[in-house]
Amino acid sequence: MASDTRTISVCKIAGVQVDIDLSWLVIFALILWSLSEGYFPALYPGHRLIAYWVVGLAATLMFFGSVLIHELCHAAVGNLKGEKIDRITLFIFGGMAHMGGEPQSASDEIVIAGVGPLASLALALLFWLLYKAAAMVPAASLWTAVFRYLGAINLALALFNLLPGFPLDGGRLFRAILWKRSGDMEQATARAADWGAALAWGMMIFGAIEIFGGALIGGLWLIFIGLFLRSAAIGEYRGTIVSHLLHNILVGDIMTRDPVALPADISVAEAVDGFFLRYGYGGFPVIAEGRPIGTLSLSDVRNCPPENRAATKVSEVMRPIDAAIEISPQASAMDAVHKMNATNSGRLLVIGDGKLEGLLTRTAVTRFMQVRAQLEASRPPAPA
Ligand SMILES: [Zn+2]
Q1: Terminal CA-to-CA distance of the chain, rounded, Å?
Q2: Are residues 183 and 285 in the same domain?
Q3: How far is the CA of 70 from the centre of ligand 1 (A)?
Q4: 174 shares a domain with 268
Q5: Is residue 30 part of a domain?
Q6: Cα 347 to ligand 1 centroid, rounded to whole Å
Q7: Is there a single domain that holds both residue 236 and residue 97?
């Protein structure tokens, strides 16, 4: 989905933009603190406090690097398979690769989803070997602790991501298997997302039990991850269905042609009586000398006090046209949805060669998807 205010961009690796969700900063501090003040001193006592913080920082950074490698593996294989993954976002318990579209086939999905946990398992093995090697050098005892921790955490990362709830990697693998069997990707996604939501609830309930048992931090942690997983399952499922229903559809296919447009030089009061009340729409394109120059919505009208509406022109209170509310008729409908979500606007002006060709509203997109979904539901089930 589009980037939002909760993420910060860190760097670009091999053409893939790496973003960090703000939750990561909190987690970073928590892990650093618990390793430096609790885990390392308890396991390997007898060092100075500063030494614990140094290895604590090294271990936290390497943990961060491990998650990054896991996600970059998804992105690299996805790009090889023609997925166009150009951004990854690191979250509390791992990351998320942003797919340009849905995977082409179940077999592609198996490889793309599977490579992440495999990378984490490989890292777990690597750190375990380093741990065994460091254990033979007496002076390296604190580094022994770091490698031991990283081996364990990478193993945990692999196992957690293999849980069969969509959109975790295990859930994607589960979906791919169902999809391969039935040939119905939408159904498979629905089933896998149900499992994702069930898994999330399980975590939250288990977290609550932990809290009553006295393990406050561990319990809160589970509830936090459960909440996150639940919203990810719902969000990814919706995204999948939307991109499936809008597959191969262009803006020009579903826009309203020759929409009713407001002249820029009439008053707001005239626009209310002659257009809003007459047609019942929530907004109109505004034109001047035959060219589109903006949009006027009900909320723009509301921002103009009733006593001023007779003396105020439409052009003074409209939203002037800019890249955020304009789209080409050849753009994909999915791009239009991304644009509406990113700019939080319910209507886009469809403009070709500087002329207003049509209007695309969120309502029209939704209606189109509803009709298509109903048509698909009535077709006979696909042969296995
Ligand atoms: Zn993964």
Answers
A1: 32
A2: no
A3: 6
A4: no
A5: yes
A6: 35
A7: yes
Range of the domain at 188: 7-245
Output the pTM of the full model: 0.69
Residues 138 and 284 in one domain: no
318 token code pair = 């409209």
CA atoms within 13 A on the CB side of 183: 5
Q: Which of 75, 66, 167, 81 is nearest to 123 (CA)?
A: 66
Within-domain flag for 381: no
Question: Residue 384's pLDDT band (boundaries 50, 70, 90)?
Answer: very low
pLDDT(118) > 90: yes
pLDDT band at 151 (very low <50, low <70, confident <90, very high): very high
267 and 189 co-located in one domain = no
Cα(175) to ligand 1 centroid in Å equals 14
At residue 100, the pLDDT reads: 53
Ligand 1 centroid vs 303 CA: distance in angstroms? 46
Which pLDDT score is estimated for 354?
81
Task: State the distance from the centre of ligand 1 to the C-alpha of 78, rounded, in angstroms.
Answer: 12
Q: Are 57 and 85 in contact, with CB atoms under 8 Å apart?
A: no
| pLDDT of amino acid 382 | 45
Residues with Cβ within 8 Å of residue 376, at least 6 apart in sequence: 186
CA of 159 relative to ligand 1 center, distance in Å: 10
Whether 140 and 203 share a structural domain: yes
Report the CATH number at residue 280: 3.10.580.10
Give, as residue ranges, everything with CB less than 5 Å from ion ligand 1: 116, 161, 169
**Ligand 1 centroid from CA 199, angstroms:** 17
Encode pLDDT of 336-351 as tens digits. Answer: 888 887 777 788 889 8
Among residues 184, 328, 303, the alpha carbon closest in space to that of 252 is found at 328
* Residue 355 confidence (pLDDT): 86
Quote the tokens at residue 358. 């049509």
Please identify, among 211, 245, 279, the residue that sits at the C-terminal boundary of a domain. Answer: 245
Check whether residue 276 and residue 232 sit in a common domain: no
Residue 377 lies in a domain: no
Domain final residue pick, 202, 230, 245 = 245
- pLDDT, mean of residues 147-166: 90
Residue 193 Cα to ligand 1 midpoint, Å, equals: 16
| Count of structural domains, the chain | 2
